[in-house]
Write the structure tokens for this entry.
Amino acid sequence: MSEDEKLVKEITPKTEDFSRWYTDVVRKAELADYSPVKGCMIIRPYGFALWENMRDALDRMIKDTGHVNAYFPMFIPESYLKKEAEHVEGFAPEVAWITHGGDKELEERLAVRPTSEAIICSMYAKWISSWRDLPVLINQWANIVRWEKVTRLFLRTMEFLWQEGHTVHETAEEAQEETLKILDMYEDFAVNTLAIPVVKGFKSDKEKFAGGVRTYAIEAMMWDGKSLQAGTSHNLGQNFAKAFNIRYEDRNQKLQYGWSTSWGVSTRLVGAVIMTHGDDNGLVLPPKIAPFQVVIVPITSGKNPQKVLAEANKLKDRLVKNGIRVKLDDRDEYTPGWKYSEWEMRGVPLRLEIGPRDIEKGSVVLVERPDRKKNFVKMENIEAEVQKLLDSIQSAILERATKMRDEKTVEAENWEQFKKIMAEKRGFIKAYWDGTRETEDKIKEETKATIRVIVDENSKGKCIYTGKETNLYAYFAQAY
Amino acid sequence: MSEDEKLVKEITPKTEDFSRWYTDVVRKAELADYSPVKGCMIIRPYGFALWENMRDALDRMIKDTGHVNAYFPMFIPESYLKKEAEHVEGFAPEVAWITHGGDKELEERLAVRPTSEAIICSMYAKWISSWRDLPVLINQWANIVRWEKVTRLFLRTMEFLWQEGHTVHETAEEAQEETLKILDMYEDFAVNTLAIPVVKGFKSDKEKFAGGVRTYAIEAMMWDGKSLQAGTSHNLGQNFAKAFNIRYEDRNQKLQYGWSTSWGVSTRLVGAVIMTHGDDNGLVLPPKIAPFQVVIVPITSGKNPQKVLAEANKLKDRLVKNGIRVKLDDRDEYTPGWKYSEWEMRGVPLRLEIGPRDIEKGSVVLVERPDRKKNFVKMENIEAEVQKLLDSIQSAILERATKMRDEKTVEAENWEQFKKIMAEKRGFIKAYWDGTRETEDKIKEETKATIRVIVDENSKGKCIYTGKETNLYAYFAQAY
């Protein structure tokens, strides 16, 4: 067995066991590793570079829409967490508690933030006094802890990284507008940066944010037919303003409670990228966020290896100067074939092969990761050609993912069909729901499917389960 | 009393009470606020934008020297923290402990990282097996918790943000080289980005990192004659490699322990910037890291305010297009005079004043924050003129701070003089030290001064306290 084969064989095929395929890819590509603390993960340099690119792209969007970053303490006094009744009920079971500082027991336990509404709202109450102070549009990038029982690298870990926006507005309308603006921003980010198509809508009461009024979400369809919640935007109404006494003097000198929102996406999006685009050879990364967009593999086995290396370095410099992220793999101890497999497995969008004969011809070979398509390109046009190919790969994988999502989305005619689909190919099922918790629970019990998002509340049809008239049209799926 | 005066009067003069001046500036400029959790702080948007600019500049330097970022869990099992004996002894008194997850008590307590050697070294032991895996050059940006009794905004808080580099090398020489390379990088960053001159050297055994072999540091002199440790770089020898079993097969197929380093700077650098450059009117920010480098104040009280605003907006767009960070303060409810004071207090390096008469003349007024120097500048050259002034302010405040530092640095002739200086003007005292812990303790007892850094270990002279012959020449100071 050659080295090349061995490398690929270490990854379980998707079709054989998707869950093992996922873990193999995460670990072989060195995106993440398990930690000595059960349920926590280490984000390794390659995985972190990917996250940094995602974070920076989203951070620009958050700032471009008028938000500013800040940082709040990660400890929340227990009494603060308890101020909003539904909120503490929802989060308390997953909270990690600090009870000792040094060798002294604390008078009041401190929660490690499972989300930061409680600490942030307590500060907003202090900072906001007039309508002139509104809106407050603050975001923070932070680590979050939720004591999960079952964890999976990136998808569900005890500690994870995220951004959380927390805003306060003068009116209910403005808060709703912000909630939807952010939902659209997340969709834009998922589609145009991560190349992940999404479905957007709002959650049922059962699935909404603890303490909020309405939760909107984007949901993405994974290769195995399960949906992944990829971002949420919550309209919190006046619930938190009342619990934390966030009041302002309005334009008529009257005291009013503010209207707030919160919203977030996390490192689980890295998992979404892997499961949407990856294949049996490993990762496939969208060019916009790939740590390396191009890997240069010099063929130095022939004559004049020094000249090949020198040319490879020149090409690298030219590409880097054009803002392209490039890795030149000039290691002696591996063959070109081994390197091809390695960087395919790591999902680098473009491979540039350059050898003595290429140099003679003044051209190089550019191989596209998704379909291994070869492009023979003149060296003189390298910058423009590489950029063109990166753009086309970005579009192509979005198109492929959209096609996959659409193929996995069906309308169920009746309950028998619904059950059959969920038992076999899964995916999204579009159907009417009568709006009751009872029906929601029964559907889950019988099919493991939950309401991912309600996409229409002004429609008319019959509930897929009870046959009752309803106006709620939803996407159902099994979910991560 | 006018609004202008009121704003400035809210800040205690430096000469009256430096400590109150500091707190006034931090809070009035909305850099930070106290939190409901004692000892923790909130970094408000203006303070966080400042930190982001510092972080991004340093992050580029860290990456340019070949390091990559990653993320490790913030929880460390107690047994891991205990593996290096000196290390746990040094940090245990300041550790916050997690004892419960949800409603379940944990089998083993988890420390919230006071620094990450223990968790990171345990992973390095797993990842490193051959000399080919070395060096490992990883950095992380993270939040850190130390249970401090006395805290001050930015300077010493229970939770703070920092970067921590953790590297492993094949040889002792390479580890030492890395330790010094980072020390130089920190100096470069302090001097050329923060405009803070520093003294560099190594710590006495008493002050070194718990578990390390030698700690190097940069120290900065504050306006009140006290020194602030601004960054540390530790050569850890093989101590952690042995405690965590980080071994690699060397070039002769023999198993060897690795040689490691760690190094960090934190949000306390924000405090250093404030205390080095600020004055009685508030903050003075180095242009390279100021959230806003230019504030435009339009004079709209005269005729044709709309035209003034339109011109102000045009100037803003031109400057922004040139990569300059600009705030246009077009609020109606405040007078230009009030805005001048406000943005002076917030330390914006350049103020651009524009009114109807300026527009007629085709010029604007640019006022430099540090000395209020006025520059009358043609609008057509605005981009170049602004950039020139920003550069000159950056140099000027470094020069001013260096002069201040030099004025506060003296050589003590004898012990009486040493005591007198430390009792009166403080500052750095350069003197010989006999190398004993006893002398070090006595000097501190009698003068509150500690050895900030040893700058020469191959010199020859008499200990300032005992008169003994020694080769250690050091900087002494009272410290933050």
